[in-house]
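Hi R.,

Quick one: here's the Acyl carrier protein sequence you asked about.
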Amino acid sequence: MDRNDVYQKVVETVAETMDADVNELTEETTFDSLSADSLDKIELVTALEDAFDASLDDDQLVDIQTIADAIDAIMAAE
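And here's the predicted structure, written out as tokens:
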């Protein structure tokens, strides 16, 4: 899967999980800007792991602050 494919799937998952407008999301979008609290972030990571059939390393989870960070983590997990 190339970066663009991962981006599209991450954005769709974030939009669905965070009740956000997919057209307003970019790689620079932070989860804090979407008013995500710690529980929201856990739900999002779980949704991303399910969407990509991947397991993200616990050490990486702290570093995932933006959509770009999520894409990088998913690509590293594949």
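The chain is about 60% helix and 0% strand.

Cheers,
M.
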